[in-house]
């Protein structure tokens, strides 16, 4: 299962939103795989295409993180068992590992903390990361944001220049929301940053400049796990067969904490913007049709997406395609978080800095890339992984 580099470096994964459904599912899955209690289904980097590239091993991983919630990971895992997200009885079998990770989690900072005292909040996040690295003697640390979706951030003059941004934060000006502030904390602490949410953290020019300045990778944004995954696979079919898409309407029903957050139109705006990006890029135009996100509490951690596509063929003949996607978002997202952490750790070992366009395969609105076709994204990902591994000398013979 592991394909560790020769010297088996210890590497750390710090999760923003560490007690959430995605993070908990990922931690349970990681512990189960290391203990040979579960297989790697859903993990892209466990495909044969990635054999021999020297990705950091799962058994060498140290997991930590922060969350304003206080429910212990074992309890969260039991809740996910009840919901059918993880197998029955798994929480008990990996309870010791969950307790070990739980002991490393901090309270992080709240949106109120960031708004009231951003300089203090930044210092606290930096101190947490520094302690995590030193306590566990880590070679690389990757920070991944899997917290709740934030509303779009209000533009500010400081966002265009890294020195102006750092000066504003030092002066205690509330110019960032929690996710972008976590990105600043990560990059100034020598850690890479990945945004699995549609927050603004990876698209702010000053934060991209900060990554370049510190020689650290940056990746995001908004993990592609359901309806949009299907869009990036299906839309090229219409474009390549010269079929005119007249409309593409989507209805998304979801429960859980994410569904509750996205029931707020202000928070949902970030998600809807990222979901709209692929069609325009792939088709060259934006077809008609609404995309909705609605909260149905009874669905819990499950989601249903129904899409109606109307298209036009030869001689203007009108046709339709409909699909229904029903899945568990946490189970779809969790292995991708591990994939991204491993790939970004490889990029760190190779000395890559700034946005990583080759990781577009994982995101709805990928930073640093205009490629949205799923097949092409996968080809680019494999090519980049092998080239990057060759530069580190970790490619297996």
From TrEMBL:
Protein name: Inositol-1-phosphate synthase
Span of the signal peptide: none
Protein family per UniProt: Belongs to the myo-inositol 1-phosphate synthase family.
Gene3D superfamilies in the cross-refs: Dihydrodipicolinate Reductase, domain 2, NAD(P)-binding Rossmann-like Domain
Span of domain Myo-inositol-1-phosphate synthase GAPDH-like: 226-330
Coiled-coil features, chain-numbered ranges: none
Lineage: Bacteria, Bacillati, Actinomycetota, Nitriliruptoria, Euzebyales
A Pfam family it matches: NAD_binding_5
InterPro entries to which the protein is assigned, alphabetical: Myo-inos-1-P_Synthase, Myo-inos-1-P_Synthase_GAPDH, NAD(P)-bd_dom_sf
Single biological process term from Gene Ontology: phospholipid biosynthetic process
GO molecular function, one term: inositol-3-phosphate synthase activity
């Amino acid at each position: 299962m592991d394909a560790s580099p020769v010297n088996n470096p210890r590497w750390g994964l710090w999760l923003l939103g560490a007690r959430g459904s995605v993070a908990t599912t990922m931690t349970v899955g990681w512990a189960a795989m290391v203990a040979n209690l579960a297989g790697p289904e859903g993990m892209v980097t466990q495909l044969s295409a990635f054999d021999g590239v020297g990705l950091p091993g799962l058994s060498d991983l140290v997991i930590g993180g922060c969350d304003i919630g206080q429910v212990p990971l074992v309890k969260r895992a039991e809740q996910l068992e009840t919901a059918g997200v993880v197998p029955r009885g798994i929480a008990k079998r990996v309870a010791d590992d969950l307790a070990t990770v739980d002991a490393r989690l901090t309270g992080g900072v709240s949106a109120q903390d960031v708004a009231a005292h951003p300089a203090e909040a930044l210092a606290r996040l930096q101190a947490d990361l520094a302690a995590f690295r030193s306590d566990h003697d880590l070679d690389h640390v990757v920070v991944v944001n899997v917290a709740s979706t934030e509303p779009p951030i209000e533009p500010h003059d400081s966002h265009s220049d890294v020195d102006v941004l750092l000066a504003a934060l030092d002066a205690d000006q509330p110019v960032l929301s929690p996710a972008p502030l976590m990105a600043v904390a990560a990059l100034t602490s020598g850690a890479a940053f990945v945004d699995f949410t549609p927050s603004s953290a990876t698209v702010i020019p000053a934060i991209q400049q900060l990554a370049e300045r510190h020689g650290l990778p940056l990746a995001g944004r908004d993990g592609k796990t359901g309806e949009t995954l299907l869009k990036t696979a299906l839309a090229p079919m219409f474009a390549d067969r010269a079929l005119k898409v007249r409309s593409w309407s989507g209805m998304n029903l979801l429960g859980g904490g994410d569904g509750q957050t996205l029931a707020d139109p202000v928070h949902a705006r970030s998600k809807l913007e990222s979901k709209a990006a692929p069609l325009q890029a792939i088709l060259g135009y934006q077809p008609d049709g609404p995309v909705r996100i609605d909260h149905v509490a009874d669905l819990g951690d499950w989601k249903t997406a129904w899409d109606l596509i109307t298209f036009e063929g030869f001689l203007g003949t009108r046709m339709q395609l409909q699909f229904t996607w029903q899945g568990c978002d946490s189970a779809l997202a969790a292995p991708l978080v591990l994939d991204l952490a491993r790939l970004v750790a490889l990029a760190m070992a190779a000395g890559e800095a700034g946005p990583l366009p080759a990781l577009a395969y994982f995101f709805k609105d990928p930073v640093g890339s205009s490629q949205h076709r799923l097949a092409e994204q996968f080809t680019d990902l494999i090519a980049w992984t092998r080239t990057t591994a060759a530069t580190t000398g970790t490619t297996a013979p």
